[in-house]
Amino acid sequence: MGGIVVDRPCPAAADCPRAVPEVWDQADLRYDRNADGRDQWTARRSRPEPWLVRHRSLRFELQPTPLGQVGLFPEQAASWGWIENQVRRAGRALQVLNLFAYTGGATLAAAAAGAEVAHVDAAKPVVTWARRNATHSDLAGAAIRWIVEDASKFVAREVRRGRRYDALILDPPSYGHGPRGEPWKIDRHLDELMSHCADVLAEPAAFVLLTCHTPSISPGRLRQALAGCLTAGNRHAVRARSLFLETADGRKLPSGLAATWPE
Questions:
Q1: Tens digits of per-residue pLDDT, 96-119?
Q2: Where are the alpha helices (DSSP H) in the chain?
């Protein structure tokens, strides 16, 4: 990652042998989960300052967070390419709503392709981080609205306003809280949110992308959830696929699911 080697726990990789053990032994940053709950980062030398990585025309600022993340989920890169293709294929300036938008990978992919984006996340520091990524990517002047709000409340408000979007992007967490403590559990709240999203999705719509990293959500379950925001005639064209982290030699590590419409 930008010349920094990061060693983080990953359940999907727990039983995988380390192909180049000496590289991991020399990791610049390591995140350890401890039985006493005192999870922590350790640095081999001095802790690195935020650093930049590049994906095509986009640049992202990375740094260790208290929850063991670094601000980027690289398995989403395939989805960013899919978003760019869908925006360009539309041949017009799409209005895109990105919920649970995190540090802005999908937002910037859509904006770079010419879309106007509403970027919504409940965490103010994360939205600020996403804005820095826009600056790093020469997209500070792009048509992006940066919104700190609970996703469900924002969608309900847009429904009342009569606002419609040509495309939807969602990457809901397994659980979380809004800026005012609003609870979110994907197993309990996803279907309700998707049904409300149906009321802000324009007709005809351009595309919908729904991703998740929750082990209890199956491809069929995710496909069904996405179909809940589509008209009956479009539900047959929903596809679910696995997300992977792929090594240079072609090995693939399962890293979540994505459901897309159209296929």
A1: 999 999 999 999 999 999 999 999
A2: 21-25, 77-90, 105-112, 124-136, 151-161, 186-197, 219-227
pTM: 0.93
For the chain, state the CA radius of gyration.
19
The dihedral of CA 39, 216, 194, 78: what is its sign? positive
Report CA-CA distances (Å) from 120 to 14, 20, 22, 52, 176: 33, 39, 41, 23, 14
Cα–Cα–Cα angle for 55, 59, 64, nearest 5°?
105
- Is the pLDDT at 1 greater than 70? The verdict is no
226 pLDDT tier (thresholds 50, 70, 90): very high
Backbone angles phi, psi at 253, to 5 degrees: -110, 115
Q: Beta strand 239-246 with 95-99: parallel, antiparallel or unpaired?
A: unpaired
